[in-house]
Design brief:
Structural class: alpha+beta
Distance between the termini: 16 Å
Strand order of the largest sheet: 1-4-3-2
Number of strands: 10
Shape: globular
Strand content: 25-35%
Radius of gyration: 17 Å
């Protein structure tokens, strides 16, 4: 995926000295190429006349944060960052994907509409295999508006769509 990779340095504290962090999951070479390209790319220019608000965070709900973290760590090929309030954050370009465990209050609602990710063509094929990290997915389709994409659901009924970079409509 074309999410920008950044390393976060933790300030020394009592808790960080006593806890060992889990080793990072192995990454494919393509992920390194994406991270380097994202780190060296110039920021996207604002559309002419844009003075409205910028979208910076999107929330998906779950009922098991540990399971959701494993699912999204594997799917997005990055380690989520835990935050207070039963949530984990993932950087996806300029927008942060926030996964929130709502099980203490209610069942997760599912997002009701698709959340779209732009990915490289070779990753689109890898992700759209018959199963996406344990969940079924649709076939790659060229849409009437030109996008090449497929849809999948996560275990909490959140609809995800993966669109090939360069074919996105209205980006």
């Amino acid at each position: 995926m074309a999410a920008k990779k950044t390393k976060t340095k933790k300030s020394p504290s009592k808790s960080s000295k006593s806890k060992k962090s889990k080793p990072a999951a192995p990454r494919r070479k393509a992920r390194v190429e994406v991270a380097v390209a994202a780190a060296t790319a110039a920021p996207a220019a604002e559309p002419e006349g844009h003075d409205g608000p910028d979208l910076f965070r999107v929330t998906l709900e779950c009922n098991n944060l540990g399971r959701a973290t494993e699912f999204y760590d594997a799917l997005l090929e990055q380690r989520g960052v835990r935050h207070p309030g039963s949530r984990v954050y993932y950087r996806c370009g300029a927008v942060t994907l926030q996964i929130v465990d709502v099980s203490a209050e209610r069942d997760p609602s599912g997002n009701g509409a698709a959340l779209y990710f732009a990915v490289r063509a070779r990753e689109l094929g890898c992700l759209s295999a018959e199963v996406v990290h344990g969940e079924t997915s649709g076939d790659i389709v060229r849409r009437p508006w030109g996008e090449r994409s497929f849809y999948a659901e996560d275990p909490w009924r959140n609809v995800l769509c993966f669109v090939e970079n360069g074919t996105e409509y209205a980006r």
